[in-house]
Design goal:
The structure holds 2 protein chains of 2 kinds. Chain A contains 10 helices and 6 strands; from the N terminus they run αβαβααααααααββββ. Chain A is α+β, with helices and mostly antiparallel strands. Chain A has a single domain, classed as 3 helical TM bundles of succinate and fumarate reductases, CATH 1.20.1300.20. The longest helix of chain A has 21 residues, at 8-28. Chain B has a single domain, classed as Roll (Ubiquitin Conjugating Enzyme), CATH 3.10.110. Helices cover 29% and strands 13% of the residues of chain B. Chain B contains 5 helices and 6 strands, in the order E-H-E-E-E-E-H-H-H-H-E. Chain B has a 4-stranded antiparallel sheet with strand order 2-3-4-5. In chain B, strand 2 (28-32) and strand 3 (40-46) form a beta hairpin. The longest helix of chain B has 19 residues, at 158-176. The relative contact order of chain B is 0.21. Classes of the chains: A alpha+beta, B alpha+beta.
Chain lengths: 254, 230
Protein backbone atom coordinates (compact mmCIF):
# COMPACT_ATOMS: atom_id res chain seq x y z
CA UNK A 1 0.00 0.00 0.00
CA UNK A 2 1.22 3.49 -0.74
CA UNK A 3 1.70 6.25 1.79
CA UNK A 4 -0.71 8.55 -0.09
CA UNK A 5 -3.52 6.05 0.19
CA UNK A 6 -3.07 5.50 3.87
CA UNK A 7 -5.15 7.84 5.99
CA UNK A 8 -2.90 7.03 8.96
CA UNK A 9 0.19 8.46 7.34
CA UNK A 10 -0.59 12.10 8.04
CA UNK A 11 -1.24 11.37 11.71
CA UNK A 12 1.86 9.21 11.81
CA UNK A 13 3.95 12.06 10.49
CA UNK A 14 2.49 14.48 12.98
CA UNK A 15 3.04 12.02 15.82
CA UNK A 16 6.58 11.25 14.69
CA UNK A 17 7.36 14.95 14.46
CA UNK A 18 5.89 15.67 17.91
CA UNK A 19 7.92 12.75 19.28
CA UNK A 20 11.09 14.17 17.81
CA UNK A 21 10.39 17.60 19.30
CA UNK A 22 9.77 16.02 22.71
CA UNK A 23 12.99 14.03 22.45
CA UNK A 24 14.96 17.15 21.48
CA UNK A 25 13.60 18.99 24.52
CA UNK A 26 14.28 15.99 26.77
CA UNK A 27 17.88 15.74 25.61
CA UNK A 28 18.50 19.42 26.22
CA UNK A 29 17.15 19.95 29.73
CA UNK A 30 16.50 17.98 32.92
CA UNK A 31 12.92 17.76 34.21
CA UNK A 32 13.93 20.03 37.12
CA UNK A 33 17.26 21.89 36.88
CA UNK A 34 19.67 23.29 39.45
CA UNK A 35 19.01 26.96 40.24
CA UNK A 36 20.88 29.61 38.25
CA UNK A 37 21.08 33.42 38.41
CA UNK A 38 18.03 35.24 37.04
CA UNK A 39 20.48 37.38 35.00
CA UNK A 40 21.05 34.34 32.78
CA UNK A 41 17.63 34.94 31.25
CA UNK A 42 18.93 38.11 29.61
CA UNK A 43 20.94 36.15 27.09
CA UNK A 44 17.71 34.66 25.73
CA UNK A 45 16.25 38.07 24.91
CA UNK A 46 19.11 40.17 23.57
CA UNK A 47 16.95 41.41 20.70
CA UNK A 48 13.83 41.97 22.75
CA UNK A 49 13.78 45.21 24.73
CA UNK A 50 10.36 44.70 26.29
CA UNK A 51 11.49 41.41 27.82
CA UNK A 52 14.94 42.69 28.77
CA UNK A 53 13.47 45.57 30.76
CA UNK A 54 11.25 43.16 32.67
CA UNK A 55 14.05 40.76 33.43
CA UNK A 56 16.07 43.71 34.71
CA UNK A 57 13.17 44.43 37.08
CA UNK A 58 12.96 40.75 38.00
CA UNK A 59 16.61 40.64 39.12
CA UNK A 60 15.79 43.28 41.77
CA UNK A 61 13.34 40.98 43.58
CA UNK A 62 14.60 37.52 42.66
CA UNK A 63 18.09 36.11 42.59
CA UNK A 64 17.66 32.57 41.26
CA UNK A 65 15.57 30.69 38.75
CA UNK A 66 15.10 26.92 38.69
CA UNK A 67 14.14 25.82 35.21
CA UNK A 68 11.52 23.13 34.68
CA UNK A 69 11.37 21.24 31.40
CA UNK A 70 8.86 22.66 28.92
CA UNK A 71 7.04 19.43 28.19
CA UNK A 72 3.48 20.52 28.93
CA UNK A 73 3.81 19.49 32.57
CA UNK A 74 5.95 22.41 33.74
CA UNK A 75 3.35 24.13 35.92
CA UNK A 76 2.30 20.90 37.65
CA UNK A 77 5.88 19.72 38.07
CA UNK A 78 7.06 23.09 39.38
CA UNK A 79 4.13 23.22 41.79
CA UNK A 80 4.70 19.67 43.08
CA UNK A 81 8.42 20.34 43.49
CA UNK A 82 7.87 23.52 45.52
CA UNK A 83 5.20 21.73 47.58
CA UNK A 84 7.58 18.88 48.47
CA UNK A 85 10.33 21.33 49.29
CA UNK A 86 8.06 23.52 51.43
CA UNK A 87 6.51 20.57 53.32
CA UNK A 88 9.96 19.41 54.38
CA UNK A 89 10.72 22.80 55.92
CA UNK A 90 7.31 23.79 57.32
CA UNK A 91 5.70 21.41 59.83
CA UNK A 92 2.38 23.27 59.94
CA UNK A 93 2.06 23.14 56.16
CA UNK A 94 3.07 19.47 56.18
CA UNK A 95 0.33 18.55 58.68
CA UNK A 96 -2.26 20.48 56.71
CA UNK A 97 -1.25 18.91 53.40
CA UNK A 98 -1.21 15.34 54.75
CA UNK A 99 -4.56 15.86 56.42
CA UNK A 100 -5.99 16.99 53.09
CA UNK A 101 -4.28 14.25 51.08
CA UNK A 102 -5.78 11.60 53.37
CA UNK A 103 -9.24 12.62 52.22
CA UNK A 104 -8.48 12.95 48.52
CA UNK A 105 -8.61 9.34 47.32
CA UNK A 106 -12.18 8.74 48.48
CA UNK A 107 -13.11 12.22 47.27
CA UNK A 108 -11.72 11.66 43.75
CA UNK A 109 -13.32 8.24 43.42
CA UNK A 110 -16.63 9.70 44.52
CA UNK A 111 -16.25 12.33 41.79
CA UNK A 112 -15.95 9.52 39.25
CA UNK A 113 -12.18 9.06 38.80
CA UNK A 114 -11.27 5.40 38.17
CA UNK A 115 -10.30 3.94 41.56
CA UNK A 116 -8.01 1.23 40.11
CA UNK A 117 -5.48 3.77 38.86
CA UNK A 118 -6.29 6.77 41.07
CA UNK A 119 -5.33 4.70 44.11
CA UNK A 120 -1.91 4.02 42.63
CA UNK A 121 -1.24 7.66 41.88
CA UNK A 122 -2.52 8.68 45.32
CA UNK A 123 -0.44 6.12 47.21
CA UNK A 124 2.70 6.93 45.27
CA UNK A 125 2.26 10.66 45.86
CA UNK A 126 1.57 10.35 49.59
CA UNK A 127 4.33 7.81 50.16
CA UNK A 128 6.92 9.80 48.23
CA UNK A 129 6.02 13.03 50.02
CA UNK A 130 6.14 11.24 53.36
CA UNK A 131 9.54 9.73 52.60
CA UNK A 132 10.84 13.10 51.59
CA UNK A 133 9.57 14.78 54.76
CA UNK A 134 10.91 11.98 56.98
CA UNK A 135 14.33 11.35 55.55
CA UNK A 136 14.69 13.13 52.19
CA UNK A 137 17.57 15.35 51.20
CA UNK A 138 17.95 17.98 48.51
CA UNK A 139 19.72 15.41 46.35
CA UNK A 140 17.06 12.75 46.82
CA UNK A 141 14.36 15.30 45.97
CA UNK A 142 16.18 16.22 42.76
CA UNK A 143 16.57 12.54 41.96
CA UNK A 144 12.85 11.90 42.53
CA UNK A 145 11.79 14.79 40.32
CA UNK A 146 14.25 13.90 37.57
CA UNK A 147 13.25 10.24 37.41
CA UNK A 148 10.83 10.18 34.45
CA UNK A 149 8.43 7.55 35.77
CA UNK A 150 8.32 8.81 39.36
CA UNK A 151 8.19 12.48 38.44
CA UNK A 152 5.31 11.86 36.03
CA UNK A 153 3.42 9.83 38.63
CA UNK A 154 3.55 12.84 40.95
CA UNK A 155 2.42 15.12 38.12
CA UNK A 156 -0.56 12.87 37.36
CA UNK A 157 -1.71 13.07 40.97
CA UNK A 158 -1.66 16.87 41.06
CA UNK A 159 -3.56 16.81 37.75
CA UNK A 160 -6.13 14.53 39.41
CA UNK A 161 -6.43 16.91 42.37
CA UNK A 162 -6.89 19.80 39.94
CA UNK A 163 -9.63 17.88 38.10
CA UNK A 164 -11.31 17.03 41.38
CA UNK A 165 -11.39 20.63 42.58
CA UNK A 166 -12.64 21.92 39.21
CA UNK A 167 -15.45 19.36 39.15
CA UNK A 168 -16.36 19.84 42.79
CA UNK A 169 -16.58 23.64 42.32
CA UNK A 170 -18.04 23.37 38.86
CA UNK A 171 -20.53 26.19 39.50
CA UNK A 172 -17.67 28.55 40.11
CA UNK A 173 -15.48 27.45 37.18
CA UNK A 174 -17.86 26.42 34.43
CA UNK A 175 -18.90 29.99 33.49
CA UNK A 176 -15.29 30.63 32.32
CA UNK A 177 -15.38 27.82 29.77
CA UNK A 178 -19.09 27.68 29.01
CA UNK A 179 -19.84 27.13 25.36
CA UNK A 180 -16.47 25.49 24.79
CA UNK A 181 -17.05 22.42 26.95
CA UNK A 182 -20.37 20.89 27.91
CA UNK A 183 -19.36 20.43 31.53
CA UNK A 184 -16.36 20.52 33.84
CA UNK A 185 -15.76 16.80 33.36
CA UNK A 186 -15.22 17.31 29.64
CA UNK A 187 -12.94 20.27 30.38
CA UNK A 188 -10.87 18.10 32.74
CA UNK A 189 -10.71 15.16 30.34
CA UNK A 190 -9.49 17.44 27.58
CA UNK A 191 -7.52 20.18 29.35
CA UNK A 192 -6.29 18.73 32.66
CA UNK A 193 -5.74 14.97 32.51
CA UNK A 194 -3.85 14.47 29.21
CA UNK A 195 -0.15 14.40 30.00
CA UNK A 196 0.92 17.29 27.81
CA UNK A 197 -1.79 19.86 28.58
CA UNK A 198 -0.35 22.96 30.18
CA UNK A 199 -2.16 24.63 33.05
CA UNK A 200 -3.99 27.90 32.67
CA UNK A 201 -5.43 30.22 35.30
CA UNK A 202 -8.41 27.96 36.14
CA UNK A 203 -6.24 24.90 36.75
CA UNK A 204 -3.81 26.92 38.88
CA UNK A 205 -6.56 28.40 41.00
CA UNK A 206 -8.19 24.99 41.51
CA UNK A 207 -4.96 23.25 42.53
CA UNK A 208 -3.81 25.98 44.93
CA UNK A 209 -7.25 25.92 46.55
CA UNK A 210 -7.34 22.14 46.78
CA UNK A 211 -4.07 21.91 48.72
CA UNK A 212 -4.31 25.35 50.38
CA UNK A 213 -0.82 25.98 49.10
CA UNK A 214 -0.95 29.37 47.38
CA UNK A 215 1.60 30.80 44.98
CA UNK A 216 2.68 34.02 43.37
CA UNK A 217 2.86 34.12 39.59
CA UNK A 218 5.28 36.61 38.09
CA UNK A 219 4.38 37.38 34.48
CA UNK A 220 7.08 38.43 32.06
CA UNK A 221 6.08 39.29 28.50
CA UNK A 222 6.61 42.00 25.87
CA UNK A 223 4.25 44.54 27.37
CA UNK A 224 5.44 47.87 28.82
CA UNK A 225 6.41 48.28 32.47
CA UNK A 226 7.69 45.84 35.10
CA UNK A 227 6.63 42.23 35.61
CA UNK A 228 3.02 41.69 36.66
CA UNK A 229 2.59 39.78 39.90
CA UNK A 230 -0.48 37.78 40.69
CA UNK A 231 -1.26 36.00 43.94
CA UNK A 232 -3.39 32.85 43.61
CA UNK A 233 -5.81 32.41 45.30
CA UNK A 234 -6.57 36.09 45.64
CA UNK A 235 -5.75 37.49 49.08
CA UNK A 236 -3.43 34.64 50.18
CA UNK A 237 0.20 35.08 51.27
CA UNK A 238 2.27 32.62 49.27
CA UNK A 239 5.84 31.62 50.08
CA UNK A 240 6.63 30.38 46.60
CA UNK A 241 6.87 32.19 43.29
CA UNK A 242 6.69 30.85 39.77
CA UNK A 243 7.89 32.76 36.76
CA UNK A 244 5.48 32.75 33.83
CA UNK A 245 6.70 33.49 30.36
CA UNK A 246 4.14 32.92 27.60
CA UNK A 247 3.55 29.16 27.52
CA UNK A 248 6.03 28.26 30.25
CA UNK A 249 6.55 28.17 34.03
CA UNK A 250 9.78 28.05 36.08
CA UNK A 251 10.48 28.42 39.80
CA UNK A 252 11.79 31.71 41.23
CA UNK A 253 13.73 32.30 44.47
CA UNK A 254 14.21 35.56 46.39
CA UNK B 1 16.31 -2.43 19.98
CA UNK B 2 16.99 -3.64 23.49
CA UNK B 3 15.62 -1.52 26.31
CA UNK B 4 15.03 -1.62 30.00
CA UNK B 5 11.44 -1.50 31.18
CA UNK B 6 11.06 1.16 33.86
CA UNK B 7 9.91 -0.30 37.15
CA UNK B 8 6.77 1.85 37.30
CA UNK B 9 5.71 0.65 33.84
CA UNK B 10 6.26 -2.97 34.75
CA UNK B 11 4.35 -2.61 38.01
CA UNK B 12 1.36 -0.99 36.29
CA UNK B 13 1.24 -3.68 33.62
CA UNK B 14 1.54 -6.55 36.07
CA UNK B 15 -1.16 -5.11 38.27
CA UNK B 16 -3.49 -4.63 35.31
CA UNK B 17 -2.77 -8.08 33.90
CA UNK B 18 -3.48 -9.74 37.23
CA UNK B 19 -6.69 -7.77 37.61
CA UNK B 20 -7.90 -8.82 34.15
CA UNK B 21 -7.12 -12.47 34.87
CA UNK B 22 -9.20 -12.23 38.03
CA UNK B 23 -12.06 -10.29 36.51
CA UNK B 24 -12.10 -10.38 32.72
CA UNK B 25 -13.76 -7.92 30.37
CA UNK B 26 -16.94 -9.26 28.80
CA UNK B 27 -16.10 -10.82 25.44
CA UNK B 28 -12.32 -10.55 25.83
CA UNK B 29 -9.50 -12.79 26.94
CA UNK B 30 -5.91 -11.68 27.33
CA UNK B 31 -2.66 -13.56 27.75
CA UNK B 32 1.02 -12.82 27.30
CA UNK B 33 2.78 -13.60 24.04
CA UNK B 34 5.88 -14.42 26.05
CA UNK B 35 5.64 -14.82 29.83
CA UNK B 36 8.79 -12.82 30.38
CA UNK B 37 7.59 -9.79 28.45
CA UNK B 38 4.76 -7.71 29.86
CA UNK B 39 4.94 -5.22 27.00
CA UNK B 40 3.11 -7.48 24.55
CA UNK B 41 -0.24 -9.07 25.20
CA UNK B 42 -2.49 -11.17 23.01
CA UNK B 43 -6.16 -10.37 22.96
CA UNK B 44 -8.93 -12.76 21.92
CA UNK B 45 -12.14 -10.90 21.11
CA UNK B 46 -15.43 -12.81 20.85
CA UNK B 47 -18.52 -11.81 18.95
CA UNK B 48 -21.48 -11.13 21.25
CA UNK B 49 -24.11 -13.91 21.07
CA UNK B 50 -27.51 -13.01 19.60
CA UNK B 51 -25.87 -10.56 17.21
CA UNK B 52 -24.48 -11.04 13.68
CA UNK B 53 -21.11 -11.61 15.38
CA UNK B 54 -22.24 -14.68 17.33
CA UNK B 55 -19.48 -17.30 17.19
CA UNK B 56 -16.86 -14.88 15.95
CA UNK B 57 -13.25 -14.88 17.14
CA UNK B 58 -10.79 -12.12 16.39
CA UNK B 59 -7.27 -11.84 17.60
CA UNK B 60 -5.22 -8.76 18.31
CA UNK B 61 -1.85 -7.80 19.77
CA UNK B 62 -1.59 -5.11 22.44
CA UNK B 63 1.80 -3.40 22.60
CA UNK B 64 2.78 -1.06 25.40
CA UNK B 65 5.27 1.79 25.13
CA UNK B 66 8.09 2.04 27.67
CA UNK B 67 6.45 5.09 29.21
CA UNK B 68 3.07 3.40 29.75
CA UNK B 69 0.70 4.57 31.28
CA UNK B 70 1.76 8.06 30.21
CA UNK B 71 1.41 7.02 26.56
CA UNK B 72 -1.35 4.71 25.34
CA UNK B 73 -0.90 1.12 24.17
CA UNK B 74 -1.37 0.18 20.50
CA UNK B 75 -3.76 -2.50 19.46
CA UNK B 76 -3.56 -4.27 16.14
CA UNK B 77 -5.67 -7.12 14.82
CA UNK B 78 -3.63 -10.00 13.46
CA UNK B 79 -6.61 -12.08 12.44
CA UNK B 80 -8.79 -11.13 9.49
CA UNK B 81 -11.35 -8.55 10.42
CA UNK B 82 -13.72 -6.35 8.45
CA UNK B 83 -14.78 -3.34 10.45
CA UNK B 84 -15.38 0.39 9.85
CA UNK B 85 -12.99 1.38 12.68
CA UNK B 86 -10.13 -0.99 11.87
CA UNK B 87 -7.64 -0.11 9.13
CA UNK B 88 -7.15 -2.83 6.54
CA UNK B 89 -3.72 -3.55 8.08
CA UNK B 90 -5.35 -4.28 11.45
CA UNK B 91 -4.59 -1.04 13.31
CA UNK B 92 -7.53 0.10 15.39
CA UNK B 93 -8.78 3.66 15.16
CA UNK B 94 -10.56 4.58 18.38
CA UNK B 95 -10.09 7.86 20.18
CA UNK B 96 -9.08 6.37 23.52
CA UNK B 97 -5.87 5.08 21.93
CA UNK B 98 -4.82 8.41 20.51
CA UNK B 99 -1.98 10.17 22.22
CA UNK B 100 -3.12 13.49 23.67
CA UNK B 101 -1.08 15.43 21.13
CA UNK B 102 -2.67 13.91 18.03
CA UNK B 103 -5.32 16.55 17.68
CA UNK B 104 -5.87 16.14 13.95
CA UNK B 105 -7.41 12.72 14.30
CA UNK B 106 -10.94 13.17 13.06
CA UNK B 107 -14.16 13.96 14.79
CA UNK B 108 -14.22 11.88 17.96
CA UNK B 109 -15.18 13.13 21.35
CA UNK B 110 -12.08 14.70 22.83
CA UNK B 111 -13.16 13.48 26.24
CA UNK B 112 -12.28 9.96 25.21
CA UNK B 113 -8.60 10.63 24.62
CA UNK B 114 -5.90 8.72 26.43
CA UNK B 115 -4.73 9.84 29.86
CA UNK B 116 -2.69 7.94 32.48
CA UNK B 117 -5.69 7.06 34.64
CA UNK B 118 -7.08 4.94 31.81
CA UNK B 119 -6.32 1.22 31.73
CA UNK B 120 -6.22 -1.79 29.46
CA UNK B 121 -9.64 -2.56 30.84
CA UNK B 122 -11.02 0.73 29.48
CA UNK B 123 -9.38 -0.03 26.11
CA UNK B 124 -10.83 -3.55 25.95
CA UNK B 125 -14.29 -2.32 26.89
CA UNK B 126 -14.08 0.20 24.03
CA UNK B 127 -12.88 -2.44 21.57
CA UNK B 128 -15.56 -4.94 22.61
CA UNK B 129 -18.31 -2.37 22.26
CA UNK B 130 -16.87 -1.07 18.99
CA UNK B 131 -17.26 -4.50 17.38
CA UNK B 132 -21.03 -4.40 17.17
CA UNK B 133 -21.44 -0.60 17.37
CA UNK B 134 -19.03 0.94 14.89
CA UNK B 135 -18.54 4.68 14.68
CA UNK B 136 -19.11 5.32 10.99
CA UNK B 137 -18.50 9.06 11.28
CA UNK B 138 -14.75 8.54 11.24
CA UNK B 139 -14.14 5.30 9.38
CA UNK B 140 -10.70 3.73 9.12
CA UNK B 141 -12.01 1.31 6.51
CA UNK B 142 -14.31 3.28 4.24
CA UNK B 143 -15.52 0.24 2.27
CA UNK B 144 -16.51 -1.53 5.47
CA UNK B 145 -18.27 1.63 6.68
CA UNK B 146 -20.28 1.93 3.45
CA UNK B 147 -21.18 -1.75 3.56
CA UNK B 148 -22.22 -1.46 7.20
CA UNK B 149 -24.38 1.59 6.49
CA UNK B 150 -26.13 -0.15 3.57
CA UNK B 151 -26.90 -3.09 5.83
CA UNK B 152 -28.03 -0.87 8.67
CA UNK B 153 -30.33 1.30 6.55
CA UNK B 154 -31.38 -0.97 3.65
CA UNK B 155 -30.77 -4.46 4.96
CA UNK B 156 -28.21 -5.02 2.23
CA UNK B 157 -26.77 -8.48 3.12
CA UNK B 158 -23.18 -7.91 1.96
CA UNK B 159 -21.93 -6.83 5.42
CA UNK B 160 -23.50 -9.80 7.21
CA UNK B 161 -22.19 -12.21 4.56
CA UNK B 162 -18.73 -10.84 5.02
CA UNK B 163 -18.94 -11.32 8.79
CA UNK B 164 -20.23 -14.89 8.32
CA UNK B 165 -17.22 -15.69 6.15
CA UNK B 166 -14.91 -14.28 8.80
CA UNK B 167 -16.58 -16.32 11.54
CA UNK B 168 -15.91 -19.50 9.56
CA UNK B 169 -12.40 -18.47 8.61
CA UNK B 170 -11.28 -17.60 12.15
CA UNK B 171 -12.66 -20.75 13.83
CA UNK B 172 -9.44 -22.66 13.33
CA UNK B 173 -7.49 -19.77 14.84
CA UNK B 174 -9.52 -20.05 18.05
CA UNK B 175 -8.80 -23.76 18.05
CA UNK B 176 -5.07 -23.30 17.67
CA UNK B 177 -5.13 -20.70 20.46
CA UNK B 178 -6.89 -23.23 22.69
CA UNK B 179 -9.86 -20.92 23.12
CA UNK B 180 -13.51 -21.97 23.23
CA UNK B 181 -15.76 -19.45 21.54
CA UNK B 182 -18.74 -18.59 23.77
CA UNK B 183 -22.08 -19.13 22.05
CA UNK B 184 -24.53 -18.11 24.75
CA UNK B 185 -24.81 -14.86 26.67
CA UNK B 186 -24.01 -16.69 29.89
CA UNK B 187 -20.78 -18.09 28.44
CA UNK B 188 -19.93 -14.75 26.88
CA UNK B 189 -20.17 -12.81 30.13
CA UNK B 190 -18.23 -15.30 32.24
CA UNK B 191 -15.59 -16.42 29.78
CA UNK B 192 -12.01 -16.52 30.94
CA UNK B 193 -8.59 -16.95 29.37
CA UNK B 194 -6.82 -20.13 28.35
CA UNK B 195 -5.53 -21.17 31.76
CA UNK B 196 -2.32 -22.88 30.72
CA UNK B 197 -0.92 -19.57 29.48
CA UNK B 198 -1.10 -17.77 32.80
CA UNK B 199 2.39 -17.01 34.01
CA UNK B 200 3.40 -17.46 37.60
CA UNK B 201 3.35 -13.93 38.94
CA UNK B 202 5.27 -14.94 42.06
CA UNK B 203 8.49 -15.60 40.20
CA UNK B 204 8.94 -12.07 38.95
CA UNK B 205 11.56 -10.02 40.62
CA UNK B 206 10.13 -6.57 41.18
CA UNK B 207 13.17 -5.27 43.01
CA UNK B 208 15.26 -4.78 39.95
CA UNK B 209 14.62 -3.40 36.52
CA UNK B 210 13.90 -5.84 33.88
CA UNK B 211 15.67 -6.53 30.59
CA UNK B 212 14.20 -7.92 27.45
CA UNK B 213 14.10 -7.27 23.76
CA UNK B 214 11.51 -4.84 22.63
CA UNK B 215 10.71 -3.54 19.21
CA UNK B 216 8.28 -0.68 18.80
CA UNK B 217 8.27 -0.87 15.04
CA UNK B 218 4.78 -2.33 14.97
CA UNK B 219 3.09 0.61 16.57
CA UNK B 220 1.38 3.28 14.55
CA UNK B 221 3.90 3.33 11.75
CA UNK B 222 1.83 1.27 9.45
CA UNK B 223 2.59 2.77 6.01
CA UNK B 224 4.77 0.07 4.66
CA UNK B 225 3.09 -2.94 6.08
CA UNK B 226 1.49 -5.36 3.74
CA UNK B 227 -1.96 -6.67 3.96
CA UNK B 228 -4.29 -8.47 1.66
CA UNK B 229 -6.29 -5.93 -0.22
CA UNK B 230 -9.73 -7.22 -1.08
Amino acid sequence: MTAEADPMSHDDNVIAQMDQISKDIANKSPLVSEPEPVENLKSEYTQNHGFLAKIEHLTKSYSKIRRVRGDGNCFYRAYAYTLFDACKRDAALRDRVFKKLDTTLAWLVQLGMPSFTTEDFHDTFVETLKNHCDSGTYDSLMETFNNDGMSNYLVVYVRLLTSGQLQQDSDEYLPFVEGLYKDMKEFCDKEVMPVDREADHLQIKALTECLSFPLKLVYVDRSEGGPTELVIPDGSSPDVSLLYRPGHYDILYD
Amino acid sequence: MSSEVPLMTLKSLQKEFKDLQKDSVEGCVVWLTDDSNFLEWQVGLFGPPETIFQGAYFKAILTFPLDYPFSPPCIKFISDIWHPNVYPNGTVCISILHPPTADEVSGELPSERWNPTRTVRTVLISIASMLNSPNINSPANVDAAVMYRKWNTNNDPAYVDRIKDLIEKNKSLAESDGVTIPLTLAEYTTHTKPVEDTPDMGDLNLDSDYDYNYSDSDCYYSDEEEYEDD
